[in-house]
Amino acid sequence: MSSVVIHRDAQAAAVAVAADIAAIIRERNRAGRAAVLGLATGSTPLPLYRELVRLHREENLSFAHVVTFNLDEYEGLPADHPQSYRHYMEQNLFSQVDIPRASTHVPDGMTGDPAAACGAFEKAIADAGGLDLQVLGIGRTGHIGFNEPPSAKDTRTRRVALDDVTRKDNSVFFGDVASVPRAALTMGVATILEARRIELLAFGSGKAGIVRRARNESPNAGCPATWLQLHPACTFHLDPASSGQA
Ligand code: PGA
Predict the structure, then answer these.
(1) Does the C-beta of 42 come closer than 6 Å to ligand 1?
(2) Residue 1's pLDDT is what?
(3) Is the separation of the CB atoms in 10 and 19 below 8 Å?
(4) How far apart are CA 101 and CA 63, in angstroms?
(5) Using a 6 Å cutoff on CB, does residue 142 contact ligand 1?
(6) What torsion, rounded to 10 degrees, do the Cα atoms 218, 224, 230, 232 define?
(7) First-to-last CA distance in the chain?
(8) 29 CA distance to ligand 1 centroid (A)?
(9) Most buried one in 8, 19, 152, 198, CB count within 10 A?
């Protein structure tokens, strides 16, 4: 079962999720183990990364022993492309905290062998001991990561074609839809569901319809976020608008 918390606003949600992440990092540090975090990109988690950076600067939260895996990456964008998700992570988190770059993993959008790269990504997650916590957004198609509909429950990290709705939504970052890549590499639904804990963030009235579907439809490949209902520790962090109450 997934649970729902309706926060006052996106900032309050970011503070709450950052506190959960900080607690995991500190608990793992005390146990002498690395915390393994699954991270997301897009507009939604930006306040979360700002809060994590603040905790690092002002409250001594160290990322020195944190290992991260990002959900996805566009195909064909090099790491230094301003719209690549590696670049996003560098800008918004990695360059602002003390995480060793070798501990950060983002699928390689430039690989010549996507199947091998995706297999290696899965193996790296397993070798790290699995994801302690996965941060998610949700797309208007119902995607989690870039698992566009239809995405089955047993899907693994793989190359996917992007939905036209997603390409249009993400064209705001590229300037025009033609510049948005047509494919990506993404963790699969099964990969995501294996995280020990999942924190999904969705804000604004534009997400209200898809959040309602994700929570109320029976789990189905046509709305991949519905699979989260099967996870034992998944929380939807909403604001009044995305919860349909504003
Ligand atoms: P957004 O994207 O945060 O930019 O709305 C969410 C997603 O596509 O998962």
Answers:
(1) yes
(2) 63
(3) no
(4) 11
(5) no
(6) -140
(7) 25
(8) 31
(9) 198
Residue 246: per-residue pLDDT: 75
For atom 2 of ligand 1, the residue with the nearest CA is 42
Classify each residue of 81-93 as buried b or exposed e, where b means 16 or more C-beta atoms within 10 Å of its C-beta: eebbbbbbbbebb
**How many Å lie between the centroid of ligand 1 and the Cα of residue 197?**
19
Ligand 1 neighbourhood includes 141 CB (under 6 angstroms): no
Q: Is 153 exposed, middle or buried (0-12, 13-18, 19+ CB in 10 A)?
A: middle
Q: Which amino acid, one-letter code, is at 188?
A: G
pLDDT of residue 245: 86
The verdict on the CB of residue 200 being under 6 Å from ligand 1 is: no
Per DSSP, 121 falls in state: H
Residue 90: CB partners within 8 Å, gap ≥ 6?
none
pLDDT means per 10 residues, the chain with 246 residues, are 93 98 97 97 98 98 98 98 98 98 98 98 98 98 98 98 96 96 98 98 98 98 98 98 91
Which of 48, 151, 167, 169 to probe ligand 1 with, by most ligand atoms within 8 A of CB?
Answer: 169
- Structure tokens of 73? 């990456």
Cα–Cα distance for residue pair 6/236, rounded to 1 Å: 8
Two structure tokens written together for 139: 């797309």
State how far the Cα of 3 lies from the Cα of 10, in Å rounded to an integer: 17
Dist CA 162 CA 181 (whole Å): 8
224 prior amide bond cis, ω within 30: no
